[in-house]
Amino acid sequence: MLYLCIEILTAIKRNNVQMHATTFRNLGNIMPGQWWQSLHRTMLRGVLGKTFRLVGYTIQYGCIAHCAFEYVGGVVMCSGPSMEPTIQNSDVVFAENLSRHFYGIQRGDIVIAKSPSDPKSNICKRVIGLEGDKILTNSPSDFFKSHSYVPTGHVWLEGDNLQNSTDSRYYGPIPYGLIRGRIFFKIWPLSDFGFLRDSPNGHRFSDD
Amino acid sequence: MVASALYLTNGAHQYGYECLTGMAQSKGWVRRYFKAFCKGFFVAVPVAVTFLDRVACVARVEGASMQPSLNPGGSQSSDVVLLNHWKVRNFEVQRGDIVSLVSPKNPEQKIIKRVIALEGDIVKTMGHKNRYVKVPRGHIWVEGDHHGHSFDSNSFGPVSLGLLHAHATHILWPPERWQKLESVLPPERLLVQSEAE
């Protein structure tokens, strides 16, 4: 059996060698050196051309994607418990950036902002107060209520899950320039598909 | 006669065909130009916008808060600087860099100042409500070179790195002020204590 296999393998090898020989011969009267040169040239040109086209398309679509995310909006996945029950951990939401550019962020909007202590990470909170608003800064256990005013150019953010949220009650109001976009629509999970609800905590600011 | 009739119909046929293709061609060039314009528009505009947002752009400096480094002539001749976004894409700045950032008091405005201190450093302030300030994590302390005429961290405190916009590297206009902007701390603003060393 083994001898049979070896016989078959050597026969195939012999046939292969014979095939190669015929290909070489069938290329007519071209000298072998020229044949290699022309093959290299066409292969190289084809590969280079394809690479340049691929790079060009990548740059073009990358730029279109950047413009879309920067000026229109995009899909974001949120993580963390600080916005429960409105947004749960690993929900997928749709964020739009037009409100930020036209300065149309209102009280009660859920926004994505750059974290003030780590510019490479994003936070997702609700806007409780705009500039000039009076904010209650004490926790419910304090006896005396303490107020503070939101300075110009800043916003006061709080998560919906007040017990488990690091927000402006911890690091103070953040500048408006850190806001990246406004979340207004939830895509996943499908059981919660649709526009986002109002804050479950009622009004935490006094308008007087 | 039949032959000539055939010849005529053939000719008419041919003429009609040429007419049709002629018309198609004359309308075709409009469509072709429109297609080329759309293609160019959708390629050129996003690429240009991305370049100006992510790589580099130029800006005119206004105000006297960075004299004498920038705008020494006051309002007669404003300097034009090259703003490099690529260098700050990871929010890495050094002490002494001239940077542009979104103003924390007015998000529609960009201000250009020098970085004096990074996170963890203790700064001796000039005109701030606290005499010494420790710069918190993720923040920087910026000041204009013209003390007293500058709206900077001495007024609004340390700024978050997320507001960083670009690093000003060169002066491009006027031509007699062509130079590379050096990252050097003014000698009177040396630090009290820095975390890095």
UniProtKB/TrEMBL annotation, chain A:
Keywords: Hydrolase, Membrane, Mitochondrion, Mitochondrion inner membrane, Protease. SUPFAM superfamilies: LexA/Signal peptidase (SSF51306). Its EC number is 3.4.21.-. It is found in: Mitochondrion inner membrane. It is an enzyme of class 3 (hydrolase). Catalyzes the removal of transit peptides required for the targeting of proteins from the mitochondrial matrix, across the inner membrane, into the inter-membrane space. Known to process the nuclear encoded protein DIABLO. This is Mitochondrial inner membrane protease subunit. It comes from Felis catus. The gene is IMMP1L.
UniProtKB/TrEMBL annotation, chain B:
Residues 37-126, 128-173 form the Peptidase S26 domain. Pfam families: Peptidase_S26. It comes from the Eukaryota. The keyword Transferase does not apply. Gene3D superfamilies: Umud Fragment, subunit A. Keywords: Hydrolase, Membrane, Mitochondrion, Mitochondrion inner membrane, Protease, Transmembrane, Transmembrane helix. Its EC number is 3.4.21.-. It is found in: Mitochondrion inner membrane. It is a single-pass membrane protein. PROSITE patterns: SPASE_I_3. Belongs to the peptidase S26 family. IMP2 subfamily. Catalyzes the removal of transit peptides required for the targeting of proteins from the mitochondrial matrix, across the inner membrane, into the inter-membrane space. Known to process the nuclear encoded protein DIABLO. Heterodimer of 2 subunits, IMMPL1 and IMMPL2. This is Mitochondrial inner membrane protease subunit. It comes from Felis catus (Cat). The lineage of its organism: Eukaryota, Metazoa, Chordata, Craniata, Vertebrata.
